[in-house]
């Protein structure tokens, strides 16, 4: 669908993508797929999933200490990593700074903007992944992606 010359996704595509990210098997295949497209994209899938788990924690009314530990874990892994680069996901630096400033806020929305940015970025690769999925039997997808990764590594060498 096109609106103002921009491609607009249908809500059913967005819902299908969201469900795929929540499905461990499909998410793993998609993560491998995007790892071939760019360095931080694979981390984007993991970040999105961890933020979903964090939001589930918030909604389950668990204790503040547990929620704070989850915030810290997500920040230490993706936003302010000890392993360079400190920012392990593809979000604007301002978003990362905002998260760090609000790291003591325990609500479910601390990672909202970053999660939406990552979702939008990853969603661009969804149609290509769907095409790959439709051309291969489900048990052959990971094998095909491993072959592509091998070829990509050979080109780098």
Automatic annotation (TrEMBL):
GO terms for molecular function: G-protein alpha-subunit binding. CDD domains: RGS_RGS22_4. Residues 16-122 form the RGS domain. GO terms for cellular component: cytoplasm; nucleus. GO terms for biological process: regulation of signal transduction. It holds the Pfam family RGS. This is Regulator of G-protein signaling 22. It comes from Nestor notabilis.
